[in-house]
Amino acid sequence: MKLLIDDANLSAIKRIYDLYPCDGVTTNPSILAKTGKWPYEALLAIRAFIGEEADLHAQVIGRDAETMAAEGRRIASLLGRNTYIKIPAVPQGLKAMRILSGEGLRVTATAVYTVQQAYLAGKAGADFAAPYVNRIDNLGGDGVETACRIHDLYRVNNMKTQILAASFKNTRQVLALAEYGAAAATASPEVIEGMMKNADVDAAVEAFIADFESLCGPGKNMLEG
Ligand code: G3P
Questions:
Q1: Smallest Cα–Cα separation from 88: which of 41, 34, 29?
Q2: β-strand 106-112 against 2-6: which pairing, if any?
Q3: Closest residue CA from atom 5 of ligand 1
Q4: Using one digit for the tens of pLDDT, what is the confidence trace for 1-20?
Q5: Rounded to whole angstroms, how far apart are CA atoms 193 and 182?
Q6: Which end of the chain has fewer CB atoms surrounding its CB within 10 Å, N or C?
Q7: Atom 8 of ligand 1 has which residue's CA nearest to it?
């Protein structure tokens, strides 16, 4: 499963990229607004940092298909070939997905809350569909189950579309999708870091270091001797 960072804050992205194996960055208008920067300023800086091979997802704003398609072309022309145009899975969005996927651009259907939305987005040519796992949970549904059903729907219908599960609030949701074989998930820096947060592991590593230092001396390591 690809793991992407759902954030536009460059220092947070750098912090995660430095330690964690990640495949790219996803953004949405709300995430971009938090940076306080002009959208293309933030997005170009992210692209420059992650490199042209990594996946970058950027969302259109327009309410009609033609505007969405025009935004998508501009996003792709400025941010490079490995950029996915995020288009909300609404009726006008379905039309925009058909237009842009027909032009060979990469498309991610976003704001996916239901399996039927994902089905239509897939038929409209989306490469990815992003089920909002935690938001579905908060509506009383089962976000992980919905994402898994979408994954199965694409496979059983031989569609090219894959899931990019999004909107995670805990690591268990991410892990469940990885275990199911989801193609991709995007999570906040905090959730990604949470996957490695474990006081028992930290204590075990500290005990190894303390035992080594009691043998060889403080500050020593396997570079010595
Ligand atoms: O980018 C879309 C998705 O990740 C939204 O997440 O945390 O706002 O529910 P959230």
A1: 29
A2: unpaired
A3: 167
A4: 999 999 999 999 999 999 99
A5: 20
A6: C
A7: 167
